[in-house]
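Quick one: structure tokens for this chain, please?
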Amino acid sequence: MEYPIDLPGGAQLSTKSICDALSRHKEEGFEAVAVCPELLQNKLSDYGFRIRSYKMGENRLVNLLYRIAAFKKIIAEENPDLIHIEMSESLITYGFIRNLFSKIPYLYTDRGMYYGYRTRSKLFMMPVLNKASALVTTTDKNRKLWEDNSRVRPVVTIPNTITDSFAVYDEGRKKKGGRFAIGFAGRICVEKDWPFVPLLIKAFNDAGIDFEVHLVLSLFEKGDDLQAEELKRKIEDIIGAERLKFFTELSQDQMSDFYYDIDLFVMTSRFESFGKAAVEAMSRSCSVISTEVGGLPEVIGKDENLYTKDNIQKAVNYLKELTENPEKLERDRRYFLERYRANYTADAYLKRHLELYRRVLS
């Protein structure tokens, strides 16, 4: 990977998930070794699998040169049976040295969407992908995009999972009764479209629905704290401070607790290649509604729980149904919990990877 595994991000968490699972199930015959830049805060001893780290530079060109040298050295020393590349810059980097390791099969996981890559990036990626043993996508939608627009084969779908903090569901901790709680969570970024959230909350409030809002934000860049405070103020202006529970920088264990306390989780994203936050909410038996973008319709799996921003009345009407019909809310909660258990658990994630690894190695 081209980013430290302890830097918050979907690819890092997904990589950690498969490495953790392989480490827990040594009887399956695989040892994971993660290759990434030097850790930001954590120690190597914090992980249950081996990490080989390398130095990062100050710009993209220097980083590329560092990665080429590091990948060449580490792969030669480890002599792996299989290489699983998790990020696009690392795929491009491997392209410069892959002929040195021509006997080692490799695969790549695309955690975005086919159309999300720049033309220049694709020029470097495609020759490497055409020689890969497999391309992995996290949704069938992205798999079909790759199959329709490229010659890369085979393309295999392995949906994402979430961290071990969500592995066990405790019904006794789930919110029961009280004011209806609506949850929002994510990092401050353009894709999440946080300016839309007050508009949606106002529409809910204008419909006469009695609810409170639980909001969690992750702050990464300079100025994120100012955006968070502005969002908080706008929501308070609509529903009052007493009806808003506001959090920042929660750990994964704390996020698990957060979802126990809400009835409905709402996604307002402009784009999501997958939608891990939706899966986290599902694992805690929350109802979920979402914008109809990217991979989210596939994750949600139910048209009535999808809305568009030019028709937010659909979201308003669905929320009213849930607040007025406890039986419908209970059915929705059970649907999403079972959907998580059937598709997105760590065990399912490990099983699908093992099947692919063994097929490639055979």
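The two ends are 25 Å apart (CA to CA).
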